[in-house]
Design brief:
single chain, alpha/beta, three-stranded antiparallel β-sheet, globular, disordered N terminus
């Protein structure tokens, strides 16, 4: 049971609430919408705390959260932030540390949160600033029957070269089926989500520890050339505009034999109405020089530093990221809708495993092998696996991704694309070198 204490003396809010209400700014992902629907009859009934939700699409909510938290207006107590924003916002003093709340709430069971999630949601000072709602890594999804038809077996821990060889051999094994789907759509969170993990394992990095841009380095170039060649030679139709959704549909519809992407995709592949349910195998993210290569992402909860209702805000965060909430979703919505990917106990729950057994262990292994502070072969200047944890990265990554997408389309060479990317990255790096030198 949740504590039912309330804190007096707090003022009005966006939702017109008083001391027993909080305001939550939230992305409109399906699992968040489930949360909104379940809150009044469960959280509010137990605690007496009313939750006023503002729910917006991802791009809109990111903009609004950035404006709200940077101004410290205090209108919203809690917001959905990813593990990209949490360390940046913590560094800026925009969100509140949670360590004292965690210590006073043993029922939350912080030790149950998967360790890479804790690392990625902590600040430079080592304190926890966010709690995950659901998380993901990445792995390779493949049609077991198609590989068997071609007389092939997926290695237990495939390398990228082995994956490329398999893609070449299964390309066209079934009419209209390409060997692999890889994102080519521009965007720092589209093509560069998988591509940066490829760069990492090929030995490349966006920046060295002392802020030297490396976008045109031999390792970065080799990784991008490999990715572009693979998707051009054996990838999906329309690759330059293919993102997560397009690749998901391609695998479900039998248009591709393999796909490297988010572990969260497995729920759709194994859904009751999926034509490929029970036909998909799941292998770790392919590697070259590193032991593992999967990314790490989590939609999470942050509490605004300016909030005057932090106790009530924590009660909501504790509930929304807690074990009991996962059980509630499983029982009332369905176990395939549980916001998984954050707690060890989820992967020991027989009810969840009955629904997600085809991919649960592979997902947990992918998340637990992710190292957000050491994802490559060299030290990094900022936390992050598929991104660089600095405010400039979304713009930098998106601009360079446009060049990469053009290379996939055959409009520019990889060398030319990365020459332009190096100029952009060096502009960013120069600012950090100047700050660190005090000039």
């Amino acid at each position: 049971m949740l504590a039912t204490s309330s804190c007096a003396g707090w003022g009005g809010s966006v939702g017109g609430g008083g001391p027993d209400s909080i305001n939550v700014l939230m992305v409109n992902n399906p699992q968040m919408v489930d949360l909104q629907r379940l809150t009044a009859d469960n959280f509010t009934r137990e605690t007496g705390i009313t939750v006023n939700f503002t729910v917006l699409p991802e791009n809109d909510v990111r903009d609004k959260i950035s404006q709200e938290f940077s101004s410290q207006a205090g209108q919203y107590d809690v917001a959905t932030l990813s593990n990209f924003e949490i360390p940046i916002y913590a560094r800026s003093g925009w969100i509140a540390p949670m360590d004292e709340f965690i210590a006073a709430d043993p029922g939350f069971d912080q030790e149950d949160i998967l360790a890479p999630m804790v690392t990625s949601l902590s600040g430079d000072d080592g304190q926890v600033y966010g709690q995950p709602f659901y998380g993901e890594s990445s792995f390779l999804m493949y049609r077991r029957d198609v590989l068997e038809q071609a007389g092939l077996a997926m290695p237990a821990n495939p390398t990228w070269q082995e994956v490329a060889d398999i893609a070449a051999r299964v390309d066209g094994v079934q009419p209209g089926m390409a060997g692999i789907c890889l994102r080519g759509q521009p965007g720092w969170g589209q093509v560069f989500a998988p591509l940066t993990t490829v760069v990492n394992t090929f030995g490349g990095t966006w920046f060295t520890e002392d802020w030297q841009a490396q976008v045109d380095s031999p390792e970065f170039t080799e990784a991008v050339q490999f990715y572009v060649d693979l998707v051009r030679e054996h990838g999906e139709t329309g690759a330059p505009q293919a993102g997560f959704t397009e690749c998901l549909n391609n695998l479900i519809q039998g248009n591709v034999a393999m796909w490297y992407d988010a572990t969260s995709a497995a729920g759709s592949l194994e859904a009751a109405d999926s034509p490929v349910r029970g036909m998909i195998g799941y292998a770790p993210a392919p590697v070259v020089e590193t032991d593992s290569a999967g990314w790490l992402y989590a939609w999470s909860w942050g509490i605004q530093a300016a909030s005057e209702r932090k106790d009530a805000a924590w009660q909501f965060v504790s509930w929304a990221s807690g074990k009991e909430y996962e059980q509630l979703v499983g029982e009332q919505v369905g176990w395939s809708s549980v916001p998984a990917g954050k707690r060890a106990s989820t992967y020991e729950n027989p009810q969840y495993l009955a629904e997600a057994g085809a991919f649960a262990e592979q997902t947990r292994a992918a998340i637990e092998s992710a190292d957000p502070r050491n994802p490559g072969v060299q030290a990094r200047p900022a936390i992050g696996i598929q991104f660089v944890g600095i405010p400039e990265f979304p713009d930098l990554g998106t601009q360079v991704s446009q060049q990469i997408s053009s290379a996939i389309a055959g409009q520019v060479s990889v060398a030319d694309a990365l020459d332009r990317g190096q100029q952009l990255a060096d502009d960013v790096a120069e600012r950090y070198r100047s700050r660190e030198s005090g000039s």
